[in-house]
Amino acid sequence: MAPESRIRLPFCRCLLTLVLLLAVSVTLSVGEEAEYANGAEIIVWMDKVGPYNNPHETYPYTKLGLCEVGDDRESNKGDLSIGEELEGHDFVENPFLEIKFGKNLAESPTCNMVLTKEKAALLKRAIKDNYWYEMYIDDLPLWAFVGQPGSGAEALLEGSGVSHRPETIYTKREFVIQKNGGQVISVDVVPGNPMPVVEGTLLQFTYSVEWQDTDKAYSARFDKYLETNFFEHKVHWFSIVNSFMLCLFLIAVVTIILMKTLRRDFTKYTMTEQEELENIDRAADDSGWKQVHGDVFRRPPHLMQLSVLVSTGVHIAATVACVLVLAITNTYYRQRGTTRASAVLMYVLTTMLAGYAGGRLYRQFGGKTWKKAMVYQVLFLPAVLCLMFMIVNTTAWIKGLTYAMPFKTILLLLMVFLAVCVPLHMIGTLWGRRSAAERSFPCRVHHLKRPIPIQHRFFIPGLILGAGLVPFGCVFIEMYFVFSSLWSYNKIYYVYGFMLAILGLLTMVLVCVSITCVYLLLNNEDYRWQWMSFLCSSSIGIYIALYSIYYYHHSTHMSGISQWLYYVCTNTFICLGMTLFCGTVGYLGACKFVFAIYRNIKSD
């Protein structure tokens, strides 16, 4: 039985298992609709606070030192899921805000405090930096600014003096809550009653609650948070059309030009002996991709490194695909931490596919130290993540930011990696080695290497850089929307269908670009196609990195070392992930192409 036939059944079983796991995950992720009796108490959770221009520099709400959270702060803290911890939430109950379902409340006091010199200075700095805070009522988020910055020095109308308006803090919250039956549909908060932040000032915090009836369904209560005018703008639709047209153009180019050329080559390379004698003069001058058939399947240099990169790329591709399928069939934005929690889950479940890809590639090209390769494959991406995590988390611990990971969560993730990921990767590696016959190539590899013709020194670098520019043109508009969601104030990305469509088109573009580059390389009698196919496709990461630098300087107003480190580490991982994903897609597409064309020629 052929190797492809032997692996078809196990591979299909693996895909079926993943589909079932996805279905179970979707079922479990559907939250229950909360129902309240009239007069039932609704807990108000204070979450985090931070500067408006630094969306990820967030601190616990208790950092403001206000009296609202009470003295026993630790007992008022809420339990967090792993996804909420990864997103940097820090819930603490506000015991002074007593909201009862359906019961209006006139302005009522919560607590009083006198501003000391230290607290006044802290609040002034926060208000000058436009600090906003986040709170939750029935799992619905609310945002408001802490206060209003001062006006600075301003000349009086008479011109005879200088006035200065100090920073003010909002001491009143007006809650407007809409309900439908026994369900909370909408929550809003309007801050008011600004008081000057001056040492010795008595701050009297108050709040009021107004309930309103609405006909809006419970399922639509998150629609107000989705910026449809931004994410579903005609420019976003244009990006889909642009990518689709680019994809069609490249497919047409590859189909018409390459297939026309290959058909002529196949005709020439499959001549009968009589035809070869009749065309012997032309055959003497023959050149092209057929001439390297004895070297094209030669073991590539740095095989172990290539297997590590391809294995990691398959892992990233499988994880992203599963997360996007879950995102389309579910509504991630309705539940805090769901996106990151599902990413962790899918990463764990798809580890076997990464082991399969790396083990199969390494054995196919005759790698001997497969155990060493397996260790590198399973550790490469976690090692990179740990390095970036140590940088970001250490900074977060020092500054007391909310996304500083608790030690128990770090220990839990480490245990999951050692107890689940490593065994699954080992099983996948053994599966891949078993399914791949060593050196099972269409053409026999010659013992002596064929000399590679001298090429222009800019041919390969130019080909690599030019190849990356084409797929970047397919995704750069989508990158703007993704970056806006990541690095802007409360923009929730929810159009995962757009992203899945773009990635599907990107995959086809990468395959076409990789096939074209490999064909040009082989036609120049250079048989080093494995790394070339990977590098040509992965060079898109260069352009994504350049775009992230441009975005930082032209589309954000971030400042401070902690936010800068978070931005750099996050975007570095995005660039690395896209590099490995695109490089792997290009390599696999080129591999299929090379095997196909050399399977159909008559070699000596």
UniProtKB/TrEMBL annotation:
Entry-linked Pfam families: EMP70 (PF02990)
Annotated membrane topology: Multi-pass membrane protein
Presence of the UniProt keyword 4Fe-4S in the record: no
Key words of the record: Membrane, Signal, Transmembrane, Transmembrane helix
Cellular location(s): Membrane
GO biological process: protein localization to membrane
UniProt xrefs under InterPro entries: EMP70
A cellular component annotation (GO) from this entry: membrane
Segment forming the signal sequence: 1-31
PANTHER family assigned to the protein according to its UniProt record, in alphabetical order: TRANSMEMBRANE 9 SUPERFAMILY MEMBER 3 (PTHR10766:SF41), TRANSMEMBRANE 9 SUPERFAMILY PROTEIN (PTHR10766)
Family to which this protein belongs: Belongs to the nonaspanin (TM9SF) (TC 9.A.2) family.
Protein name per the record: Transmembrane 9 superfamily member
Organism in which the protein naturally occurs: Perkinsus olseni
Gene: TM9SF3
